[in-house]
Amino acid sequence: MAPEGGVTRAILTCSPYFIDPALNEIRRHHSQITVIQSISPGYSLLDTPGSFEELTRPWRHRLPIYLHHLFPVHVDIPLEAAFDDLKRLKQAIRRIAPSKASVQVRSTVEIETPGVLEKIQRYLAGNHVCHRPEPPTGQIVSVLIAPEQAGQRAYLGVSWAAHNLSPWAGGQIPVTEPVANRAGYKLLEAIATFSIRLKKGDQALDLGAAPGAWTTLLRRRGLKVTAVAPTPLYPWLAFDAGVSYQPMLAQEYLECCRTVFGVIVNDMRLDAQDSARLMVDYAAHLRQDGVAVMTLKLRSRNQQRVMDHAFRILRQAYRIIRVRQLISNRHEVTLFLRHKAAK
Question: Residue 265 to residues 148, 191, 217, 285, 292: CA-CA distances in angstroms?
Fold first, then answer.
């Protein structure tokens, strides 16, 4: 569904730290795309020739690195911060979408009262279930509420879940288990995004493990973890027989490591190239059928050059299966790796 003249409006969602790379990803496939405006940090309103289906087709079977979510804009409505806003939104949804479509509501406007967004979504969705543990399928009504100079505006569009890059609102995978700290979200999202299958009883190596969010998640999945960090782990890990704590730097443990692991994870605060070199050094301790997950910190201005250099280093020992700037990442990307010798 495209407006007259064959032009589609769409809203792009990405990290506010990686807006230019995200736009470059689109322009590599759609050179005529136009940024109408930046709605909010990480949200851009686009004009593109052709249909929304054509816009997202290049990433139908393999996700891009930086783009988190796209949805078409079929109507936008100025809001007046009144209950009538909800009535007008619901009427607009009825005009553009079938009754069985799922409704996903997001807001870039700061809402002080907890639960307001969920109540708005329930009202707009009617009797349709809003929250499910499994990914939504079928058609999605995307609603984004954003500030503008004179108040607020809602952007609405209907599309197939499979065409939005992610079936989840904004690409945010729901968290269905507790995490010890924010870093835990990264590993949960990586496991889901990369469809990583962890084997119960496998040996895992967590480099730079402290305070232990990733170690905790690996233990919860039945892996035996060697946690390497010069600073202490969470108290519950100190009493866990399935955790071997090595109180030293990852570079130091390399000299005394004698174990071959099925999984290596690395969320260390190292420069991207140094972290890549360390992973190459540890490749000798990864089983040939093993997997690795790591983050690459990209805090410098030359992000692409730094990342490309780190990739060249990693390819000495690994196959880079997937790269993704996850929702839970900040100035970084997450990599899914396999041993270069793997069949």
Answer: 42, 11, 12, 12, 6
